[in-house]
Amino acid sequence: MIKAFIFDMDGVVCNNIPYHKKAWAQFMQAHGFKFSDTYFDQHINGETNEEIFQQLFKRKLKPTEIKNFIHEKESAYRKIYTPHIKPLSGLLKLLKQLSKNKCKIALATSAPEENVKFVLSKTKTKKYFKTIVDSKNIKNGKPHPEVFLKAAKKLHTKPENCVVFEDSILGVEAGKRAGMKVVGILTSYSKKQLHLADEFTADFTEFIYS
């Protein structure tokens, strides 16, 4: 029985992955690295910034370096995305319905706190997500299930009674590894790529909760 609904943020609350790609391409080019969609899928999307930078630079980074890199990349992302940001179709209606029915709701993301505040404010969804797990609360990015297991714990709900909304390959795997039902949101990848998900929907206009 589903008792809690856990939402990833990037690509789920809003369709912002193309703008993250632009910001990452800009960052990597500035630091002498070649950006590709394949690299993004395998080493960036769903992981924490700390993990991404360690993998990218292939050396132990100082905390100040990581902090500066995060600021550089995420500031660029927010600047690029601000004129375009809006909630995914059907999301506000679903959140209102879940809230009205007193369902447990959480946001679980590998994104930094600054981006969470930015997205929830701009999409006017902040009031629905009283329970949030972001990068400062986790040590392991996806496909590790930590972010979803911590969200379930905060909601006082068993993993098997949670449904996760995810758009990324690593995120879907993380949800399944957490023992949760996963709905694949097809903003970033195809059904074939998200084949581990239990069901699929293009956006929230097609998702029916009763």
Fold and architecture overview:
The chain is an alpha/beta fold and 210 residues long. The chain has helices spanning 17-30, 37-43, 49-57, 63-81, 91-100, 113-122, 146-154, 169-177; strands at 4-7, 104-108, 131-133, 162-166, 181-185, 199-201. The protein has two domains: 4-15 and 86-201, HAD superfamily/HAD-like (Rossmann fold, 3-Layer(aba) Sandwich), CATH 3.40.50; 17-81, Putative phosphatase, domain 2 (DNA polymerase, domain 1). It is built from eight helices and six strands; from the N terminus they run E-H-H-H-H-H-E-H-E-H-E-H-E-E. Helix 1 packs across helix 4 (63-81). The mean pLDDT is 96.
CATH fold node name of the largest domain: Rossmann fold
Q: Averaged pLDDT, please?
A: 96
Whole-number total of structural domains: 2
Strand order within the widest beta sheet:
3-2-1-4-5-6
Largest sheet: 6 strands, parallel
CATH class category label of the largest domain = Alpha Beta
Judged by helices, strands and strand pairing, the structural class is alpha/beta
The CATH architecture of the largest domain can be given as 3-Layer(aba) Sandwich
User: What's the CATH H-level homologous superfamily of the largest domain?
Assistant: HAD superfamily/HAD-like
If helices are DSSP runs of H or I spanning 4 or more residues, what is the number of helices?
A: 8
